[in-house]
Amino acid sequence: MKKPETTTKELDVFFKSFLDIEGFIGADNSLNGIQVDNDGSVVKKIAFGVDASMETFEGAAAVNAGMLFVHHGLFWGSPSVITGNLRLRIKFLIEHNICLYAVHLPLDQHPKLGNNAVLAELLGLENIEPFGAYHGRKIGYKGTFPKPVTIEEAVKKIDFMGRPPVGIFPFGKKEISSAAVMSGGAADSARDAIENGVDLFVTGESAHQVYHECMEAKLNMIAGGHYNTEVWGVRAVMRHCNAELGIETEFVDIPTGL
């Protein structure tokens, strides 16, 4: 049986059919979508990763992927001079005929396949609602636990790909009944968590400027790591591609420890 294959234009239509890329224009300057195209060849395999780094590109090439889908792309709105590392990255993609597809905030926000939705699911939250305004859009989620958990139990539920979280801050209740989730570099959203009266805030990076605010407000916080909290969306989209397209996929895991 012939393996499924498709063009980058067709894949662009497919991704935009469930990721709200158009809806985030103006709120997200990440240039979501195709950032570097291939030569028009059909794509037989898609690699998935978190960052548009040379290491990730090499991993995609090693598994013969014709497209790489990432959360953090090469471009962030402002014009970029194509020199140095950026030039080398683009040169590598062109030489290996790999299309680079990047999706930032729409992947954080997606209610089922997004980083924050998957983290909320891993925690086992119920009564889930949007949380945490970022550039005018709520991209995180909050909810309640079916029964109270400890902060250690919450960490085990997420597991963070078998890697320890960057920081655990048990400032609040021992029995945690509610939580808010905002992946990546969203430490400042701890203030939103305090305003919402939740017991636990889960994010990627911790930050000095919110440490004392969390302590004084008795808010528990887990900083799982920027990378560790943002593998979930790309992996969920990867599974969706398998189910809907039947195309071959592979996750390229390049953890930063941050």
Tell me what you see in this structure:
There is one protein chain. The mean pLDDT is 95. The chain folds into 2 domains: 8-104 and 231-250, 3-Layer(aba) Sandwich (Udp-n-acetylmuramoylalanyl-d-glutamate--2,6- Diaminopimelate Ligase, Chain: A, domain 1), CATH 3.40.1390.30; 109-223, NIF3 (NGG1p interacting factor 3)-like (Udp-n-acetylmuramoylalanyl-d-glutamate--2,6- Diaminopimelate Ligase, Chain: A, domain 1, 3-Layer(aba) Sandwich). Helix 7 (190-196) links the parallel strand 8 (176-182) and strand 9. It has helices at 8-16, 54-62, 84-95, 105-109, 115-123, 151-158, 190-196, 208-217, 232-245; strands at residues 33-36, 45-51, 67-72, 99-102, 126-134, 137-149, 167-169, 176-182, 200-203, 220-223, 248-251. It has a 6-stranded mixed β-sheet with strand order 5-6-8-9-10-7, sandwiched between helices. The protein has a 5-stranded mixed β-sheet with strand order 1-4-3-2-11, sandwiched between helices. With 258 residues, it is of the alpha/beta class.
Number of domains: 2
**The named CATH superfamily of the largest domain:** NIF3 (NGG1p interacting factor 3)-like
Which strand order do you get reading across the main beta sheet?
A: 5-6-8-9-10-7
Percentage of residues in DSSP E strands: 25-35%
Could you say what the CATH architecture of the largest domain is? 3-Layer(aba) Sandwich
List keywords for this structure.
11 strands, 258 residues, 9 helices, alpha/beta, 25% strand, 6-stranded mixed β-sheet, Udp-n-acetylmuramoylalanyl-d-glutamate--2,6- Diaminopimelate Ligase, Chain: A, domain 1
